[in-house]
From TrEMBL:
Superkingdom assignment: Eukaryota
Organism: Pogonomyrmex barbatus (red harvester ant)
Name of protein: Cilia- and flagella-associated protein 20-like
Pfam families named among the record's database cross-references: CFA20_dom
Sequence intervals crossing the membrane: none
UniProt lineage: Eukaryota, Metazoa, Ecdysozoa, Arthropoda, Hexapoda
InterPro entries to which the protein is assigned, alphabetical: CFA20/CFAP20DC, CFA20_dom
Domain CFA20: from-to ranges: 1-184
Length: 252
């Protein structure tokens, strides 16, 4: 999608205040919903993804499964709200070994697990709005010992509210960023489409994903065909099992 696009600075793939925030995305909804709402904390539009099972309600990009994003910018930034429920997202990249590698990040894991094609890692979000900064070059090098080439696909699962998802060639300071890309929204700014006429005041947090010090490596047999990004049935079984264990512990 973006292979032939000049990539420098910022490249946004989702903006909740845009006229078509999911123009590049498609969705899968089962026992949940995806809608645009006005968040009371920031007095601005946000895309809300909610569901009883994180594995069955999600958005994915590109919408066409045969296409790839082709984004070479090494930093992924997500402005997201912690809904105090289970949440996960995943991103698939291409490395210099011409292999597709996947990173899955969730708030219901406690250990980082590295496998030949997939790495699962935990994330701790502060209450309210967060800015997640994901250094794709660093994580690819740490997990697989290879070099990041480009981002292939991305999925965001329930439960969360999203303001913007974008890539950048480096981490920028607040003074260098356009107003709509900032985590701390300015007191006087241009209103976005369909936005309520209320001056936004928000105290937001910044979350930089850091892998656990002790990485648990699991060796799996190498396979000739790489697993698809979605893997619907496998994801459902794994995440449902995790949720049942957590619920059982809470009841006890």
């Amino acid at each position: 999608m973006f292979k032939n696009t000049y990539q420098r600075g910022f490249l946004s793939i989702l903006y909740s205040c845009g006229s078509s925030p999911l123009e590049l995305w498609d969705m899968h909804v089962k026992n949940g919903y995806i809608r645009r709402i006005t968040d009371e904390e920031i007095k601005s539009l946000a895309l809300e993804i909610a569901g009883t099972n994180v594995a069955t309600t999600y958005i994915y990009c590109p919408a066409d499964l045969k296409k790839v994003l082709g984004i070479k910018l090494p930093f992924l930034i997500i402005i997201i709200k912690n809904m105090k429920k289970y949440f996960t997202f995943e991103i698939t990249i291409l490395d210099d070994k011409n292999m597709h590698r996947r990173f899955r990040v969730s708030n219901f894991q406690s250990t980082t697990r590295v496998r030949p094609f997939s790495t699962s890692m935990p994330i701790r979000l502060s209450g309210g709005w967060n800015q997640i900064q994901f250094n794709l070059c660093d994580f690819t090098r740490r997990a697989y010992g290879t070099n990041y080439i480009e981002t292939i696909r991305m999925q965001i699962h329930a439960n969360c509210r999203i303001r913007r998802i974008y890539f950048a060639d480096r981490l920028y300071s607040e003074d260098e960023m356009p107003e709509d890309f900032k985590l701390f929204f300015p007191l006087h700014r241009k209103k976005c489409v369909r936005e309520e006429k209320v001056l936004p005041i928000v105290v937001a947090k910044e979350s930089i994903i850091e892998p656990e010090v002790s990485v648990e490596e699991t060796i799996e047999p190498l396979i000739s065909k790489e697993p698809d990004l979605i893997e619907k049935e496998m994801i459902e079984m794994r995440l449902e099992k995790v949720e049942k264990i957590i619920e059982r512990q809470i009841e006890e």
